[in-house]
Amino acid sequence: MIKVAFICVHNSCRSQIAEALGKHFASDVFENYSAGTGTKPNINQDAVRLMKELYGIDMEKTQRSKLLEDIPPVDIVVTMGCNVACPYLPCKKREDWGLDDNITNENSRIKVLYNDYIEELKLTTSKGNWSNIDYFGQKVLKKIGNKKISDITEQNLQDIINKAFAAGLAKKTLTSLKAMIMQFLKFCRKRKSTNLFPENLYIPKGAKVSKKNILQPDDITKLFTSTHSTYKGKVIDDFFINAYRFQVVTGLRPGELIELRSANIKDGMVYIKGSINMYGERTNGKNNNAIRHFGLSAMGEQIIKDQKALLKKHDIKSKYMFPCEEGDFMKQQNYAKHWKRYCNYNDIPYVTPYELRHTFVSIAKNLSEGKIRPLVGHSKNMDTFGTYGHEMNGELKQTASQIDTLFKDILKAQ
Question: Catalytic: 324?
Answer without folding.
Answer: no
